[in-house]
Amino acid sequence: MAATYSADQIIGKTLVARRNVELKRLPSDTAPVTYTVKPGQTVGVVYSYLLPKAGRSTLYWQFIDANGNYFYAPHKEGIYDIDIIKTQGGKTTEEKRKEEEEKKKLEEMGPFLYYLQKWGGKIAIGAGLLVALNIVLKNNK
What we know:
- 39% of the residues lie in helices and 21% in strands.
- It is α+β, with helices and mostly antiparallel strands.
- The chain has 2 domains: 7-87, SH3 type barrels (Roll); 93-139.
- A hairpin with an 8-residue loop joins strand 2 and strand 3 (33-37).
């Protein structure tokens, strides 16, 4: 199953074409295509998105060009390299769901148990290193 990302994880990320991506100056199904990005080329950094509505049958990703003008690309399954989202720090909807569950579980533990769970292993390792250092220092006397 392919990874699924929510729009908030894609905003600010660079999209790369996996197949031809048609760019338009208006987010409309009937707007003329002004440029076609070829596979492997960068489409741009996602600025925002527009949901489907009358005249727009799909979500459109919004970008800003070097002159500060908006351009748009339709969202179609398989035309973008979504694996690159993860390399840019994006988290799948499944990863976000698991993080939220873990956060909720830790919050329910209370602050003491939360920090013990979070830092307990590191504290134990540090304490073990201090004990080992103390033994070495005593043996060298």
